[in-house]
């Protein structure tokens, strides 16, 4: 299959729910969108297709690099802007035992 007929999505992946920091969230990812609906295999009943581009996940250091790759390969693409990151407020364990806490101790 020719890559000219396919389209792609370029985005910056969000951090994992298991992460508290911003590690591994600075790269940009290009994934191919499926060209059609998956089909039902009559023998096994499983859903699948012969399309292998949905298995690809290309990682780029910048959005511009991902866009340049898509343009060079003739791939139609759509860029999704990342959500604004909230600032991380540092927490200090000693603040739990301050005498002038703004809220009551909950234990």
From TrEMBL:
It comes from the Bacteria. InterPro entries: NADH_UbQ_FeS_4_mit-like (IPR006885), NDUFS4-like_sf (IPR038532). The keyword Transport applies. Keywords: Electron transport, Membrane, Respiratory chain, Transit peptide, Transport. It is found in: Membrane. Its main location: membrane. This is ETC complex I subunit. It comes from Sediminicoccus rosea.
């Amino acid at each position: 299959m020719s890559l000219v007929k396919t389209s792609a999505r370029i985005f910056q992946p969000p951090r994992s729910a298991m992460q508290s920091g911003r590690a591994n969230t600075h790269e940009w990812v290009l994934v191919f969108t499926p060209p059609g609906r998956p089909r039902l295999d009559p023998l096994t009943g499983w859903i699948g297709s012969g399309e292998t581009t949905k298995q690809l996940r290309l990682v780029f250091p910048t959005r511009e690099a991902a866009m340049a790759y898509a343009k060079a390969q003739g791939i139609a693409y759509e860029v999704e802007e990342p959500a604004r990151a909230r600032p991380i407020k540092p927490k200090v364990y000693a603040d739990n035992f301050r005498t002038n806490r703004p809220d009551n101790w909950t234990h």
